[in-house]
Amino acid sequence: GAVVSQHPSRVICKSGTSVKIECRSLDFQATTMFWYRQFPKQSLMLMATSNEGSKATYEQGVEKDKFLINHASLTLSTLTVTSAHPEDSSFYICSASSGTNSYNEQFFGPGTRLTVL
Amino acid sequence: GQNIDQPTEMTATEGAIVQINCTYQTSGFNGLFWYQQHAGEAPTFLSYNVLDGLEEKGRFSSFLSRSKGYSYLLLKELQMKDSASYLCAVTDSNYQLIWGAGTKLIIKP
C-alpha cells in the first residue's frame, strides 16, 4: 500500500515552455502533498505544501507564479513549471501524506527529471 | 537557525556494520526520520523516532537522544545494495520537516 506515482518520469523541453507534472496517490487519500526539488548531490528542498481544496503554501524564495500547484482532489496534485528556463532543470519529487502536516509519514513519488534546453 | 548535520560521505565494507550520525538544532522537536535514497531515485522511508531509545527493524536500527539532539542509523550485515544516500530529517514545533544534506554511503567488497 501507500503508492505514489509521478508522471512524466523524464521531460525535456525548450526554454520558455511550460511543463506540468502530475503526482497521484494510488491507494490512499492524500490530505497533504509536498513538492520538492533536488539538485545533484544536494538534499531535498521543500518548495510547497498543498492541502486538498486549498491554496498551496510556498516556501520562502519559491515563486508561486512560476511554480503553479493545484491539489484539486485527494489523489492528485499537479506542479506546473511556467516559462521554464535552464536553471529550472532539476529533479522534482512529490510526496503524499494522509495527515495534515509533515508529522505523518510521507510517501514519495519516483520523481520527475526536468531538463530545460 | 535550524540545522541538521550529518557526515557527507562514509565508506564501509560489505558484511560490516556502519553507524551514520545525525545531530540537529531545531525550534522544537516532533520526531526524526531516516530515509534512504539511491542515486536518481526518490527517498524511501526507513525509520521514525519520537521517543528516546533504539528502534530496530531488521538489519537497520535507529537511535534517538532528544536531550543531546542526536540520532544515529545503524546498518548491519552491509550489502552492496545499501550503497545510497541516507537522509536525516526532523519535524520541528511547527511540524515542518527539516532535511539534512544526506550521507553518501559507499560499500566496498
Plain-language structure description:
- The complex is a heterodimer of chains A (117) and B (109).
- With 117 residues, chain A is mainly β.
- Helix content of chain A is 0%, strand content 50%.
- Chain A is built from no helices and 11 strands.
- In chain A, a hairpin with a 6-residue loop joins β4 (32-38) and β5 (45-51).
- The radius of gyration of chain A is 13 Å and the shape is globular.
- With 109 residues, chain B is mainly β.
- In chain B, the strands form 2 sheets. In chain B, strands 2, 4, 5, 9, 10 and 11 form a 6-stranded mixed β-sheet that branches. Chain B has a 5-stranded antiparallel β-sheet with strand order 1-3-8-7-6, with no helix packed on it.
- In chain B, a hairpin with a 4-residue loop joins β7 (60-65) and β8 (70-75).
- Chain B is globular and about 40 Å long.
- The mean pLDDT of chain B is 93.
- The interface between A and B is medium-sized, with 19 and 19 residues.
List the helices and strands and how they pair.
The complex is a heterodimer of chains A (117) and B (109).
Chain A (H helix, E strand, L loop, with lengths): L3 E4 L2 E4 L5 E7 L6 E7 L6 E7 L5 E2 L8 E7 L2 E6 L8 E8 L9 E2 L3 E5 L1
Parallel strand pairs in A: 2-11
Antiparallel strand pairs in A: 1-3, 3-8, 4-5, 4-9, 5-6, 7-8, 9-10, 9-11
Chain B lengths: L2 E3 L3 E5 L4 E8 L6 E6 L6 E6 L3 E5 L2 E6 L4 E6 L8 E8 L5 E3 L3 E6 L1
Parallel strand pairs in B: 2-11
Antiparallel strand pairs in B: 1-3, 3-8, 4-5, 4-9, 6-7, 7-8, 9-10, 9-11
